[in-house]
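Long-time lurker, first post. I've been practising inverse folding by hand and with some scripts of my own, and I keep getting stuck on stretches where the structure tokens seem ambiguous. Below is the full token string for one chain I'm working on. Before anyone asks, I'm not after the true native sequence, just a reasonable design that respects the backbone. If someone could post their per-position residues I'd love to compare against what I wrote down in my notebook.
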């Protein structure tokens, strides 16, 4: 089964905690602090690779979790950092935040690498906190938490031209004859289970990208068969090659087939239905009933459609088709094609800035302090430790939290709630 739309969970590793240890040696009392730093948590990266062309792998790998950094140790030993994880994704993978629907990254460039979840930094050991007045710091920083995200990955193949048609009409045979793509070809319906791209070179040395998708059948737009899943892949193409079996080998009527497929396209989207088509009558090397082809020709004439008679197997007519496709692509305006950046809400710098803001809310005599920077701070603070609390107060002050509390009218005796931790305020 082909999956081109998956939800996954990624969690980068947490940083290891800094250690609280003191130098110990025989005959030496009160050795200095020697707590090492925690190791960094592993980060998770996406890397575009041409070796993969589906998101199938993520069906079996829905959770990607990087390792945590090791805690710091005594004797100034730093904990081991966890390894970063690199996940290969196909070119054209669009990553959005599963909760907000916002675009995270459009991985459309070759070899593009993107950090999708940042590992937490290791906490500093107590060795860093010794000062002349505080020679035995009994606190260290905890490691930062690694980022975690729920993501939606969507693969939109970016092709210039898409092959559509019933199963078994020879779509894969065509792409394999005109490009390096080597899809499976067999004499049964739904041989192709996932889309494939091929670069088609013209005689003149120019090229375009062709997409082969699984066959479409009647009812596809309501989910019958496999086709519907893949129609969106050809939604972005500029031109459709509507492949029809003109041989009559399967006892079908070409004109009827043409109408059924177009009906499905219309039900799927107007945009797809309105896309320009070139009709490709295939398998002319094994025509059983010439009247079927004649009928198709008539229809194309009256509908003003271009028709090419080919045999993908004997290569008859292929060169002319390829040249014509290239020329038509040149004629078609690029409108509505390529990457639809506008259909996603871009992440703006504003949200980044918001991340550094704290909020104070007054409820009766209680003042609630919240926000990302507060969360970050509290992860590093051990509230059971006096020195750590002093550190917290200093940071709150330098962040401007104290000032804002005063401006909000805080008085001695009022309660400050910092992420559930309650303190009494004193001027
Ligand atoms: N005689 C003849 N056979 C052909 C021609 N083109 C394709 N075939 C045969 O038709 C069968 C189906 O070809 P495919 O290319 O797999 O068809 P498809 O349209 O990709 O089919 P699905 O992937 O199932 O949608 C194979 O046995 C091919 O060898 C042709 O021009 N002449
Ligand atoms: Mg096929």
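-- Answer (accepted) --
I ran through it position by position. Result:
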């Amino acid at each position: 089964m082909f999956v081109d739309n998956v939800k996954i969970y990624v969690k980068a590793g947490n940083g290891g905690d800094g250690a609280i240890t003191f130098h110990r040696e025989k005959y030496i009392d009160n050795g200095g602090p020697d707590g090492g730093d925690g190791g960094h948590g592993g980060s998770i990266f996406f890397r575009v690779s041409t070796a993969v062309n589906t998101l199938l792998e993520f069906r079996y790998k829905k959770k990607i979790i990087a390792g945590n950094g090791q805690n710091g140790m005594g004797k100034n030993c730093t904990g081991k950092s966890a390894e970063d994880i690199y996940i290969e994704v196909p070119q054209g993978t669009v990553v959005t935040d599963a909760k907000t629907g916002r675009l995270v990254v459009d991985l459309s460039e070759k070899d593009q690498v993107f950090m999708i979840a940042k590992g937490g930094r290791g906490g500093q050991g107590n060795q860093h906190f010794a000062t002349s007045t505080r020679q035995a710091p009994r606190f260290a920083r905890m490691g930062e938490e690694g980022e975690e995200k729920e993501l939606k990955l969507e693969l939109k193949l970016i092709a210039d031209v898409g092959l559509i048609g019933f199963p078994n009409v020879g779509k894969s045979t065509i792409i394999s004859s005109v490009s390096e793509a080597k899809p499976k070809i067999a004499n049964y319906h739904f041989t192709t289970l996932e889309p494939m791209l091929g670069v088609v070179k013209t005689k003149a040395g120019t090229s375009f990208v062709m997409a082969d998708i699984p066959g479409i059948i009647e009812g596809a737009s309501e989910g019958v068969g496999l086709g519907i899943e893949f129609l969106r892949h050809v939604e972005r193409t500029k031109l459709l090659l509507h492949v029809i079996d003109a041989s009559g080998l399967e006892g079908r009527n070409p004109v009827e087939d043409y109408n059924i497929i177009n009906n499905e396209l219309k039900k799927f989207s107007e945009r797809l239905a309105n896309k320009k088509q070139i009709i490709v009558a295939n398998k002319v090397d094994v025509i059983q009933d010439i009247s079927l082809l004649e009928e198709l020709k008539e229809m194309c004439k009256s509908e003003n459609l271009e028709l090419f008679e080919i045999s993908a197997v004997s290569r008859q007519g292929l060169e002319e088709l390829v040249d014509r496709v290239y020329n038509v692509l040149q004629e078609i305006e690029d409108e509505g094609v390529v990457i639809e950046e506008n259909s996603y809400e871009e992440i703006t710098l504003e949200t980044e800035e918001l991340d550094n803001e704290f909020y104070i809310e007054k409820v009766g005599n209680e003042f609630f302090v919240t926000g990302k920077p507060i969360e970050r701070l509290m992860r590093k603070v051990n509230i059971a430790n006096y020195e750590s609390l002093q550190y917290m107060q200093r940071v709150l002050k330098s962040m401007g939290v104290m000032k804002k509390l005063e401006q909000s009218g805080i008085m001695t005796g009022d309660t400050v709630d910092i992420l559930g931790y309650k303190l009494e305020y004193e001027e």
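A couple of notes from the structure itself: The chain has three domains: 1-156, 161-335, 350-424. Residues 167-173, 185-187, 189-192, 214-215, 282-283, 285-286, 311-313 surround guanosine-5'-triphosphate (ligand 1) (CB under 6 Å). Happy to go over any region you disagree with.
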